[in-house]
Amino acid sequence: MSAPVPAPALTPPAFEHRARKRFGQNFLVDRGYVRRIVDAVDPRRDDRVVEIGPGLGALTAPLLDRLEHLDVVELDRDLAARLRADWPAQRLTVHEADALKFDFAGLGERLRVVGNLPYNISTPLLFHLAGCAAGLRDITVMLQKEVVERMVAAPNTPEYGRLSVMLQYRFVLEKLFDVPPGAFRPVPQVRSAVVRLTPRPAGDLDARDGALFGRIVAAAFGQRRKMLRNTLAAFLSENEIAALAVDPAGRGETLSVADYVRLANWCEANGRPGRSA
Fold it and tell me: pTM above 0.85?
């Protein structure tokens, strides 16, 4: 086993870098929260780990203290160049790419995903990761606290929505801890939180047509104030909804994940892919 290469200092940064708003850059600089995130991941030497948005290397350095090798996905070419200069290729592979388009499945099975996700693309990025969940071991990421609260929300709460249903169907979710704005530079206007997503076993995913399940969930939350008899009219009649033990006068946020699975499976069994409105 090769000896680990000493990690560069976390602060101050090795070079001046102006945070770019278009990339949603707010760099984590608080060592205490860095340590808490890395301890939450608890990587083993031979784990396959990919970090999204490594930035100035706040998490990269301590992760490499515990890993033989780390993959990172960085869109900013200046930061990507700095990372390549700081660590040898046999320790760190830098993928200069957009995480929204990156093929995470190509990095192998049992992949562990870590990162301070850019808040301006966090929701589409979570859906992108959900699409390759079968090859993931877990995801431990920092997001805007409001997004994390939506992810873990229960039915009949204001935060519960499409993101809650789709992620709770695919993952076991656990909010770990909050991170205050002062832990970042520049200081963001929002609070942050760290969450862990663990893929559910394939046998637990009981929607027979995942795409149809997703369309029904999207329709139910497409117009939150409308009743299910209206939002789901392209899939089921009011009587059919009631026959499945769902209140047609309810709204999207009143249904559990299991309710959505039941509706989707009935539509699949009865040839109801959804008709044009």
Answer: yes
